[in-house]
## 1
Amino acid sequence: MSAHPLRDRAAIVGVGYTDFMKNSGVSTLALALQAIHAACDDAGISFKQLDGVATHRVGDSVQGAVVLNALGMVDPKFYVDQFGGGSASHTVVGQAAMAVATGVADYVVCWRAINARSEYRMGGTGRPPPDVVEFQYQTPYGYATPPQQFASMASAYMAKYGATREDLGRVAIRQRDNASRNERAMMRTPITMDDYLSSRWIVEPLCLFDCCLETDAAIAVVVTSAERARDLKHTPVLVSGAAWGGGHTLYSNHREDLTTSAAAAMSKRLYAMAGAGPEDIDVGCIYDAFTPLVLVQLEDYGFCAKGEAGAFVAEGTFPFNPHGGHLSAGYVHGINHIAEAVEQLRGNAGARQVAGAEVALSTGQSGYVAGSSSALILRKGEQS
Amino acid sequence: MSDVERLIPYPDRDSALWWAALARHEFVQQRCDDCGTWRWPPRAMCSGCGSFTWTWQPAAGRGTVISCIRTHHAFLPGFEAPYFTVFVSIDEQADIVMPGTWHHADPPQVGLRVQVFFDDIDVREGAPVTLVGWQPAGD
């Protein structure tokens, strides 16, 4: 079987961060521009070389068109401004990879910019519910916010497989420990199982430490062709696999089992595109808006059998979310997982570096709200 | 709760008849005339066979709890935390999963057999509004 035509044809060559903050004091446009500028600096290119943009948002951030105007980009060759949250986070980078691999554009910048703590909280306390048809079947019931949505899958998962609060707690504790080695992380003080079990309920069965942070931040990544990447500043990080889709919303008439995510179907074609399997993944950046998502994805991406993720995490053999993830480093809606995977594969991750990391899996939200998911398999490339 | 502003359903052109039936305490669902597949939420086309013809048919209003949560944090106006929300797979077709309010002194649990409870909520203006609620099945 011949290799997939997209495999290793595009690369991430620049990563730019703002600080992770509780109140940025600036607009999402300003955040986006700061991150984009930093990503171009990191790539060793001028922002004037960008000829494509790709972002996603849920009515909570500046339009892509406004950003490209602010960049002075008069003739964008590629433009994606997708409605979607964490489930779309890896889609935009996959789309950028397709654009640069096919010659549609040369340098596409992907970003997510949010004031998710100071302006538009996902908890729904500061804005009307998102413009989604199916919310009419949720909001009147007092059921609309992410912790409630993910508590519903946690309830089903725990009932079906006998998973315990301790299984969830070990995810939170591990990631906080990882965050203690990440200078960017917002929460760096380790927590114990007692801390976890005694923290307040948010939505049973989820407590405070099961829930991610709310963060004001932006991150941008620059994507270009694998050929061009060889001559840039850093070790290129190749996009070996990019996939999206794979599932149904709670309301699509096909989901009677909340314990398996969209990633279960999607991961097969992701691995096939990359020519890799779970045994090849050196480090995982696993979407973690809430702890149960990590357990379900470790299963659905094939690292362990269904229902066994609690024990798998307790074994501690597989390095995941070395940055601390959304739970402890900061919540940038998925793109911070891509950025961390790039740093790990460059060997630039400092005290949190996973030794010898050459292949990484980075995943978006696995599909409980939007229905679909997205993910990337990234591989360390070579410079000329 | 009646003096607190609460988000009420906002029917669209697909769902208006379903919400109207619920307000009459009728538990009806769309069913495809051609292949017999049930569907919810209301939609114009059957995803099984592509048919655009359907009939609103009474459903038994019985099912099984597949998930239940208890919200402790008052995210939304008009709700007094803590409160339960249950997710019920209905008997007519297991892949129709419907959230609802909970109406029994005992907490819900996964696997429990339930029947529909027409949850008439108070609103300050306009017609009465009814939500899908659930209670333990009486058999």
Note: Chain B has a mean pLDDT of 91.
## 2
Amino acid sequence: MAEYPARYVREHRLRDGRAVTLRPIRPDDAALVREFLTGLSGESRYLRFQKWVHAPSEKLVRFLTDVDHDRHLALVCTTRTENGEKIVGEARYVVEPDERTCELGIAIADDWHRTGIAGLLMQALMTAARARGLASMEGLVLAGNREMLRFVRALGFDARSTPEDPRTVRIVKKL
Amino acid sequence: MKKIWLASYPPGVPPEIGALACPTLNELLARSCRRYRDGIAFQSMGVPMTYDELDRRSRDFAAYLQKSCGLSKGERVAIMLPNVLQYPVALFAALRAGLTVVNVNPLYTASELEHQLADSGAAAIVVLENFAHVLEQALPSTRVRQVVATQLGDLFPPAKRWVVNLAVKHVKRMVPSWRIPGAIGFREALARGATLALDDAGVGSGDVAFLQYTGGTTGRPKGAVLTHGNMAANVEQIAVWSRVTLKEGAETVITALPLYHVFALTTNLLVFIALGGTDVLIANPRDIAGFVAELKKTRFTVITGVNTLFAALLNARGFGEVCTASRGVLKLAVAGGMSVQRAVAERWQEATGVPLTEGYGLTEASPVVCGNPFDAMEFSGKLGLPLPSTEVAIFDESGRELPLGKTGEICVRGPQVMRSYWNSPAETAEAFTRDGWLRTGDLGRMDERGYVEFSERRKDVIVVSGFKAYPAEIEDVAMLHPGVKDAGAVGVPDARSGEAVALFVVRKDPALTAEMLLRHCAGRLTGYKLPQRIEFREQLPKTPIGKILRRQLRDEALRFRG
């Protein structure tokens, strides 16, 4: 496993004045990730996993937190609350076997949409992917998820549905 | 944009419907009740109800809702009835009292019903007694103040009423026991209303006539807000479209599709009220022998249905005699709700001499958007032409209009298009383009004559005999079973219902069987949403970051079938 990539830890101030931290995920984030996923609306969880997900399973939380920071890099966006740190967004990529492309996934807490954190997470994720020498980033988005499609198009992604499956859109960006 | 489809309109169909003579459904009913007083508006199990009776009964029931229940304009009334005479009475009563109708599938389970009643904030409900036990479970978490329970035979003449109600309750035992404090009988409500005055509710075309529920991606149905103006416009659009074939005051339509579904609600009930026709209500078309027996006794000029229904009739014993008797009488057979299979359309035309005329619509458009000309000589395999005052355009993913022949999302503008989804601003915003086009979520193209052709759905939805089932809802229910670790639902082609639900399951409990899981689902999902097939897997196919690959599941389901 690669070392914890502390170079990706960054503090940011959002347009609305709130302070957030972007940092790579850690295995001890399990409780925070569970809380984050549970706090998402059913719709948001559906859009992230493209299926219905109830309370996240142990296995899913382990998959999301116990990453090697190399083939699987995950960044979380956190904020300080009275009860300590809280995850309000996460983005990750997993490198494909071809070692040139990666698949991305992103989820933002429902009440943190349009605050700018999705953009921060994506920019950081793309920077990390470039540094890893990856040539492109790809993802699968439900055709009905217009907010996501608008967002990634603005980031320069090409979005196309395939004739084999018009219900999902393949998004691709050269890094 | 040029309305190229206008050139393909049959002679006599205008490009626009113009200002409506009856801008509300209440005025539409009043006009027909004046013109056709003694004409038969509805018929159920051989019992007729004239326009005059419909007028009086709906007035009485409206007065009951308004005065006795104290419901004020804009409040919601749920109707949970199959196709029986009480349905049009309750419907027009609610509208005359200035209330909004929430149609409920009577076969809903308690949790499905609960969501719809709670979301709509329904203040009253009219329910067939056979389903009252389900309502009883759902009621506590809703704001329903008054329940009106009706027995199947309540609007039949005394002797028949007595026999039917007795048979349903005690012989066939079709009424599970229920107890809802304060519930009142339908006949009692009518009697109370008869002694009360009905105040003019001042209903205008902008008032909401229906919250018509339709599924959302995550399986939580949303209410499409349909105004009197939306519905009256769609009725007029269909009425002018039908002028080439249908005559006012002279038509009889077979209504086998449920009236709680927007297709039958508009095309059968409302359009034939406007035409002064007769609706023959079929309460249970699944009893195909009973259905055919009813058809044998009835002289009908129009029938509407979905592919599944036409196929079932063609396969039914005795339907040949119906076809022989219908030669020269039947004018029109209209299909919607799901894609029509060419084989079914060809068999139908051969058997009846009348082509299946396909239309296209969606709840959000009241529902009809396109129709094939009613004077067509054969099945076209296309969705049809945009109706008068309706615009259809095909857009690509970034919202650019596509040229003729190119496939993209079918988008619609017109007076029949809903205002919004009830209490869902985000979903409403997503449903429309910036220029106010309704996105249908269906992919298709338009040919050089203006005919719209369907290619595929973009939304992740499974259409079973015209009814929508959402994978998320089925997965949700399946995963509530303690023996299930993971579940993925997909639609697979089905000869009878067009599509059927297949469910892939990863077990937590190795002893879990398909039968056990199906029993669990049956208590929580309406019949058409139930998986026709359950398969167990070690895992579900997923992308590296954990998204389910539904396409792969569908392919697996097809391979297994093949």
Note: Residues 6-135 of chain A form a domain with the Aminopeptidase fold (CATH 3.40.630.30).
